[in-house]
Amino acid sequence: MKFAIFSFAHMHAYSYAQALQHIHDAQLTVVADSHEERGEAAARKFGATYYKDYQDALQYGDFDAVIVCSENVHHAEMVVAAAEAHKHILCEKPLATTIADANAMITACEKNDVKLQTAFPIRFSTPLQYVKKQIDSGSLGRILALTGTNRGQNPGGWFNDMQLSGGGAVLDHTVHVIDIMRWYIGSEIAEVYAEVDRRFSDSPVDDCGLLVMEFCNGVIASHDPSWSRPKTFPTWGDVTLRVTGTDGITLVNAFGQHYTQYDDELNMVRQVPWGDNPDLEMINGFIACITNNSSPLASGTDGMRAMEVALAAYESARIRRPVSLPLS
Amino acid sequence: MKGDVINVKVVVIGAGTMGSVHAEAYASMPGVELRGIVDPRLDVAQSLAEKLGSFSYSTLDSLLMAEDPDVVDVCVPTPFHKEYIVRAAKAGKHIISEKPLDRNLSDAEDSIRVCKEHNVRLFVGQVVRFFPEYRSIRQQIVQGKLGQVGTARTFRGGSFPSGSNDWYANSKLSGTIIVDLLIHDIDFLRWCFGDVERVYAKNLVAERNRLDHAYVSLKFQNGVIAHLEGTWSAPSGFSTAIEVAGDKGLITHNSDGSVPIHSAIRQQRSGVAAVEVPSSPMIHNPYFIELEHFIHCIRTGDVADVEPEDALAALKISLAAVRSAQSGEVVTLSQARGEK
Ligand SMILES: NC(=O)c1ccc[n+]([C@@H]2O[C@H](COP(=O)([O-])OP(=O)(O)OC[C@H]3O[C@@H](n4cnc5c(N)ncnc54)[C@H](O)[C@@H]3O)[C@@H](O)[C@H]2O)c1
């Protein structure tokens, strides 16, 4: 299967391109990036044809599927155009920055009968999938509460430009874990309360927040999406969940499979992961859903629902009251 | 110890979980005499007193008649705190009470007022302030080692607590997991960050089969956002965790992760698998350190690291969280004061 990557603005594009190199019957053939230097370098590195304009790539490029890794606000136009050109799409999270954009993307993909998968690699994390099975088997009993964290560091660059990102830490780091929570318990979030602030830098966007939620089925939950890890943190951040059930509690750390390296050369202590690569499994899953014509594990609608919770968190912080979902 | 210091005479009311911890601390504390233990369950009081070389009584009155203590230490279930505080204050005794001071503001305020009127000291066992790891973390915060703090997270919990007559299972008696358990972290965070501006909380309460679970969100006046989690629904164990993130650094602590000793002991002849037992020994446990500090304040008249007004303020925040969980609304603390 031939792949294009539209934009290397999001750093995940590099790890997706690397993952493609490990997949036997996948090939990165096209790179489109309006940032010429960046795009050309990536195309050279991964042996793909470079286009400056993604519209040209759609017209002349040779590929079946595209991974969209542009700045958040540009996801919508690229996904809609790719759908109309009958390409299958794996779109970086957050799916979009408005509900209207997300709906337009989902509709365009449905209309043109192409797959739309939201890039939620954590769904493909082996430890998190293990816990999904544990919950479904009933060994934790009825689920009472879910506590999530997805902390990191301010990624810098366009992530701090509201016009391109659509939001800061809360948008960037809420969606993965909310997606996991919805998937784990098969219920939608009914209500969100959030504190959102800027406490760690002079960034014009929010860099920390804390969400407290309730699901339609009565499960209570909380999530911490803050860019609160200091420069000396031994890894990029974390994804953790505490699942509390009537018969047991499970704590899962998506990157718990690591060893510790004390590196005098770099003058730092690092956690080096050795577990399965969720990016690779996510792309394998994407290819499988195209090949088997099945539904993606994390669909466009899943992407929209998770994004909606982040938008509701911003609204709650603004009005200082809990906000009900769905947003109208 | 200076040779001329007169021993402080202490009696303990309630010989349950906390009464035993307090009584054991006093029994080994220099300059302190454990003069008696009161419990309506006389056999329980008796066996504890025997173990510690003290005396047991079935009522406070009979004890006060026989002994002339300087301090009455109240370790009865929370609903009985006020009754004993008031009786001891009227008898002119200084009082050390387990937390929470009470389950509602008016009773808590009554206790404080009566102690003032009778000119006796009142100390409330907000013991987290005496845990060395929490104390050290606070030190780093107040010294600015973390820079400007942005977020703080705490966790506290384990299996459902067992008390006499299963009193924790009635949220009206315990005051809910927020007032009984999360008040520890609420008090500690207030000690670190000052007054709270607003509170939002979710709480699954005891009536749901001893599976209490709560989240509390606090926005402090200094801007810090705090998230507290408490549970009584774990199948076993007890643990606490705290994390404080600032623009110059991050502190994380997890009680499970800082245990120096892990032993696995084969169960002799039973054929049962070995159970892993973690231990974290200290020369003095935090309760001993706390009680020794209170005794010191009684001797010297020093201001304590936790005064009754602090315990009251922590209770106010806890009750605001309970109210938020019940109403589904955000509670701002000036509003909570106004409503009282
Ligand atoms: N600081 C902490 O870490 C901590 C931990 C647990 C409990 N506590 C607090 O300590 C207090 C006691 O809790 P516990 O777990 O020890 O309870 P418990 O039930 O184990 O012990 C209470 C004891 O008081 C006795 N008692 C009951 N009613 C009495 C009365 N009217 N007069 C005299 N004695 C009476 C009971 O017989 C029992 O022996 C509570 O306020 C609780 O919130 C604090």
Helix-strand blueprint:
The complex is a heterodimer of chains A (328) and B (340).
Chain A (H helix, E strand, L loop, with lengths): L1 E5 L5 H10 L5 E6 L3 H11 L2 E3 L2 H7 L4 E4 L6 H10 L3 E5 L6 H13 L4 E4 L6 H11 L6 E7 L12 H4 L3 H17 L3 E9 L10 E8 L4 E5 L15 E6 L3 E5 L4 E6 L4 E6 L4 H14 L8 H20 L3 E2 L4
Parallel strand pairs in A: 1-2, 1-4, 2-3, 4-5, 5-6, 7-10
Antiparallel strand pairs in A: 7-11, 8-9, 8-15, 9-10, 11-12, 13-14
Chain B lengths: L7 E6 L3 H11 L4 E7 L3 H11 L3 E2 L2 H7 L4 E4 L6 H10 L3 E5 L6 H13 L4 E4 L6 H11 L6 E10 L12 H4 L1 H18 L2 E9 L8 E8 L4 E7 L6 E9 L2 E6 L6 E5 L9 E5 L6 H15 L7 H20 L3 E2 H7 L1
GO molecular function (chain A): nucleotide binding
Organism (chain A): Alicyclobacillus ferrooxydans
InterPro entries (chain A): Gfo/Idh/MocA-like_OxRdtase_N (IPR000683), Gfo/Idh/MocA_Oxidoreductases (IPR051450), GFO_IDH_MocA-like_dom (IPR055170), NAD(P)-bd_dom_sf (IPR036291)
Question: Would you give an account of this structure?
Answer:
The complex is a heterodimer of chains A (328) and B (340). Chain A has 328 residues and is α/β, with parallel strands linked by helices. Chain A folds into 2 domains: 2-114, NAD(P)-binding Rossmann-like Domain (Rossmann fold); 123-279 and 307-324, Dihydrodipicolinate Reductase, domain 2. Chain A contains 10 helices and 15 strands. In chain A, the strands form 3 sheets. In chain A, strands 12-11-7-10-9-8-15 form a 7-stranded mixed β-sheet. A 6-stranded parallel β-sheet of chain A has the order 3-2-1-4-5-6, sandwiched between helices. A two-stranded antiparallel ribbon of chain A has the order 13-14. In chain A, helix 6 (126-136) packs parallel to helix 8. Chain A starts with a strand and ends with a strand. Chain B has 2 domains: 8-128, Rossmann fold, CATH 3.40.50.720; 129-281 and 307-332, 2-Layer Sandwich (Dihydrodipicolinate Reductase, domain 2), CATH 3.30.360.10. Chain B has 11 helices and 15 strands. In chain B, the strands form 3 sheets. Chain B has a 7-stranded mixed β-sheet. In chain B, strands 3-2-1-4-5-6 form a 6-stranded parallel β-sheet, sandwiched between helices. In chain B, strand 2, helix 2 and strand 3 (56-57) form a beta-alpha-beta unit. In chain B, helix 4 (81-90) packs parallel to helix 5, helix 5 packs antiparallel against helix 10 (308-327) and helix 8 packs across helix 10 (308-327). Chain B starts with 7 loop residues before the first strand and ends with a helix. Classes of the chains: A alpha/beta (328), B alpha/beta (340). At the A-B interface, strand 7, strand 8, strand 9 and strand 10 of A face strand 7, strand 8, strand 9 and strand 10 of B. The complex binds nicotinamide-adenine-dinucleotide.
